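Quick review question:
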């Protein structure tokens, strides 16, 4: 069981802190003694829009005023618009922009939140544009072909690109070499405001649950269940885990992929 004071003395930045998984994570961290710098569009210590370059820079500038930090939890995402802009480019800009502040911590940690939507096939042109940092081209490709992401759309593409980015950079000198653990928590469908559209229509709910069943924990899950894993990865107790995409999804990824990775 987590100790109430296990995060005492640690400063954690949480994006998307006003609702959903971000709010649940911020609450758990505060309960466990952390100083939390919440970031969101409203109702947060730092107000910034991660769908724009200027908003991303504003977030970095505002957080920098607080001084050194111990963990960055890039949770902000979702939405019906700005899917690539917020879910990929906003998350990467947050992690890269705040990395210098992490290097001053004795136990720096970073976590990005992805989704089981990242398991869906993705348009490779858009993926490569994301990974190359070419936001204008990636957005233009998606605008020209909104069906490119299939059932999960631009959201799934953004989350898949985020997974690939973390897998690429986590073992490098800038991250692992600097003692910074960088991981991804890929969430299943949980009961958050961003997912409300799924539960508002019985047909949509059945379709999503059929495509991504969650045999352990049920459908939908709870944001605090995902937050527990995020908090562990962000803590000093994580001394040996980095570069991992960990699915907190009630078993959905295991159902969808089976033993594919181990054949």
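Suggested answer, residue by residue:
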């Amino acid at each position: 069981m987590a100790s109430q004071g296990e995060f005492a003395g640690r400063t954690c930045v949480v994006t998307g802190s006003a609702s959903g998984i971000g709010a649940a994570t911020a609450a758990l961290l505060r309960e466990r003694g952390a100083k939390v710098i919440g970031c969101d569009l409203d109702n947060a210590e730092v107000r910034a829009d991660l769908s724009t370059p200027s908003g991303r820079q504003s977030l970095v500038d505002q957080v920098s005023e607080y001084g050194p930090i111990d963990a960055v939890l890039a949770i902000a995402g979702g939405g019906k618009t700005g899917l690539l802009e917020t879910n990929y480019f906003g998350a990467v800009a947050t992690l890269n922009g705040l990395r210098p502040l992490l290097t001053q911590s004795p136990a720096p940690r970073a976590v990005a939140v992805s989704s089981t939507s990242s398991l869906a096939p993705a348009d490779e042109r858009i993926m490569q544009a994301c990974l190359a940092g070419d936001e204008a081209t990636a957005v233009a490709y998606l605008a020209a072909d909104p069906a490119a992401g299939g059932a999960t759309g631009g959201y799934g593409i953004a989350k898949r690109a985020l997974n690939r980015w973390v897998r690429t950079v986590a073992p490098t000198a800038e991250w692992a070499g600097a003692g910074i653990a960088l991981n991804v928590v890929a969430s299943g469908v949980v009961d958050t405001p961003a997912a409300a559209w799924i539960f508002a229509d019985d047909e949509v709910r059945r379709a999503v649950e059929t495509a991504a069943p969650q045999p352990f924990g049920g459908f939908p899950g709870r944001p605090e269940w995902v937050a527990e894993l995020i908090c562990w990865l962000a803590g000093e107790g994580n001394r040996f885990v980095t570069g991992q995409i960990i699915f907190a999804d009630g078993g959905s990824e295991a159902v969808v992929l089976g033993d594919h990775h181990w054949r």
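Why it works: The beta strands are 11-15, 35-40, 46-47, 71-74, 109-115, 181-187, 245-248. The CA atoms of residues 3 and 32 lie 7 Å apart.
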